[in-house]
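Thread amino acids onto this structure.
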């Protein structure tokens, strides 16, 4: 499969800096908490900018979306179908089992954890896939499929998770989706198309790289605002961080085992196995944070669960990468041993 979009090549070479990113977000949490507790400003002052930050982040996430990658994927429809089934049929069952085990009887925490689990990653999983020597070209084709599917499914998941609590206003959902997601998507993709046509390739790639660098900063600003606005409510739920950590670890183990079984049944190559493992494990916390903040803005604990899940996920993806590399190294040594003894 050849790359049609130069940004795919750039993305496949991009290596994440997981621990520096985690430290960056933890810093936003600490600063936001301190601002909420000790600042002379009221919490309403910090909350006033949340909607603007959300809109900027949503626009940037949609600008990164490469819809053209879908057209490069038809030769690998078998793998993409398997990955779709894994992410949107099998993973929700795993998520339900883990969230039910950890947060049974706690509807807000259960909803936050489920919303975090239900959306496969559409950004940094590709960098981890490259580091694990997985198939990044095929992974790039997964991104638009995953993001479109999770956007379409979000109202259903939200209804299913909150129907008994009345947290979400479903009558306003169509207007909310148009205002916050359809219009930003059209605007972002239109701008991307125009820049692609007008700018030289090197300048266009620099724009894409600049957007990649902006997303963590905007996400950190949103985390700062959430914690500064709601630190009083959050401090009463600090024990849930340990439970979220436990839940995410259990989720990673379950998806790793399931991905390995699916890979064997489908007889996938190692690069495809690594990609399947990464896409099943990595979650789209930034988009879920934005969607949830718009849909149920008055429940900060739900947002904090998503942020906590994201922070735990980053080192776990690093560990998963090492585990996958160790597995392929073992296979290489076994192959060399057999070859030398024939």
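Threaded sequence (342 positions):
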């Amino acid at each position: 499969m050849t790359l049609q979009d130069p940004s795919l090549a750039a993305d496949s070479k991009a290596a994440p800096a997981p621990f520096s990113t985690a430290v960056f977000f933890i810093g936003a949490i600490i600063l936001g908490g301190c601002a909420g507790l000790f600042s002379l400003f009221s919490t309403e002052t910090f909350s006033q900018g949340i909607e603007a930050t959300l809109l900027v982040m949503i626009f940037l996430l949609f600008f990164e979306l490469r819809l053209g990658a879908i057209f490069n994927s038809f030769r690998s429809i078998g793998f993409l179908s398997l990955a779709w089934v894994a992410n949107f049929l099998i993973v929700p069952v795993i998520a339900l089992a883990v969230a039910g085990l950890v947060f049974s009887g706690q509807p807000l925490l259960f909803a936050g954890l489920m919303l975090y689990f239900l959306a496969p990653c559409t950004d940094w999983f590709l960098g981890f896939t490259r580091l694990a020597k997985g198939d990044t070209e095929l992974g790039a084709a997964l991104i638009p499929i995953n993001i479109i599917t999770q956007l379409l499914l979000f109202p259903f998941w939200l209804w299913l998770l909150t129907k008994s609590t009345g947290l979400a206003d479903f009558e306003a959902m169509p207007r909310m989706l148009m205002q916050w997601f359809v219009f930003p998507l059209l605007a972002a993709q239109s701008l991307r198309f125009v820049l692609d046509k007008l700018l030289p390739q090197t300048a266009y790639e620099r724009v894409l790289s600049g957007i990649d660098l902006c997303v963590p900063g905007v996400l950190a600003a949103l985390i700062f605002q959430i914690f500064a606005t709601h630190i009083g409510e959050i401090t009463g739920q600090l024990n849930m961080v340990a439970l979220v950590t436990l839940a995410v670890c259990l989720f990673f183990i379950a998806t790793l085992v399931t991905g390995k079984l699916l890979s064997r049944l489908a007889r996938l190559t190692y690069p495809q196995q690594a990609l399947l493992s990464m896409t099943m494990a990595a979650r789209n916390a930034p988009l879920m944070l934005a969607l949830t903040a718009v849909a149920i803005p008055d429940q900060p604990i739900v947002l904090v669960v998503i942020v906590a899940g994201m922070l735990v996920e980053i080192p776990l993806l690093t560990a998963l990468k090492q585990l996958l590399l160790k597995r392929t190294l073992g296979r290489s040594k076994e192959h060399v041993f057999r070859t030398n003894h024939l």
